[in-house]
Design a protein that fits this description.
234 residues, alpha/beta, Rossmann fold, DNA polymerase, domain 1, 2 domains, 9 helices, HAD-like_sf
């Protein structure tokens, strides 16, 4: 039995057929797995150790951010003597331990990842969590490419993470759909040229060109993503 190596996104379309995305690029924290409580609880714990006040506004400000930039913010807010990289290691270690113990999947995420794999659509994980934090999720789900916060020079909202993911998959970012839960991540993916499906979780995501906001991934199908990818520039 022969296998056609031509990507689905590059094949000629029959009448009425919708082109599949060249790839789907997934954020992790808050999109695939609910790690935000792990991060936020760690932030409160670290602030308490410094006898400092940490607020919900502080926590939500950092959702989706580059970890080192978040650590610089935390260091300033709580008056810590720890270096930013030490803060990242302290928080990241707690989140990684929590993820190894249990993965709290977001509704519909695993099912959509499975459906996309069965449809032959390449998928990448694009997360600002470092590789050792993302490892339990990568091991559980498998991806065709993985971009983590410690593998890029510029984190979200810079476009570099999504551009790198597209490059690793050998596709154009403009032909991809990115799935995000934060305004920071959505801005990164849009800046790279992706059509973004935003499924807000901890924070609101504003409307923008080439961005579709949904309340849940539960009823989102491969065909739905194909229709979005087939729209072209808006």
């Amino acid at each position: 039995m022969s296998t056609d190596p031509t990507p689905a996104s590059a094949k000629p379309l029959a009448d009425g057929e919708i082109r599949l995305p060249a790839a789907v690029l997934w954020d992790m924290d808050g999109t695939i797995v609910d790690t935000e409580p792990l991060w936020i609880n760690g932030e409160y714990e670290l602030a308490a150790q410094h006898d400092a006040v940490w607020t919900e506004e502080d926590a939500l400000t950092l959702v989706g951010s580059d970890l080192r930039e978040a650590a610089v913010y935390i260091k300033r807010r709580i008056g810590s003597d720890m270096e930013p990289d030490e803060i990242v290691d302290w928080l990241g270690g707690r989140v990684a331990a929590g993820l190894r113990e249990k993965q709290d999947w977001r509704p519909g995420a695993v099912e959509l990842i499975t459906a996309l794999r069965e449809a032959g659509v390449p998928q990448a994980l694009v997360t600002m969590s470092y590789a050792y934090i993302a490892e339990p999720v990568v091991d559980a789900l498998g991806f065709d490419a993985v971009v983590t916060g410690d593998s890029v020079t510029h984190g979200k909202p810079h476009p570099e993470p999504y551009l790198k993911a597209a490059r690793l998959l050998g596709v154009e970012a403009a032909d991809c759909v990115a799935i995000e839960d934060s305004r920071t991540g959505a801005a990164s993916a849009n800046a790279a040229g992706c059509h973004v499906v935003a499924v807000p979780h901890a924070v609101n995501v504003p409307e923008a060109p080439r961005r579709t906001i949904v309340t849940s991934l539960t009823h989102l199908s491969v065909a739905d993503l194909a229709r979005l990818a087939d729209r072209g520039p808006e």
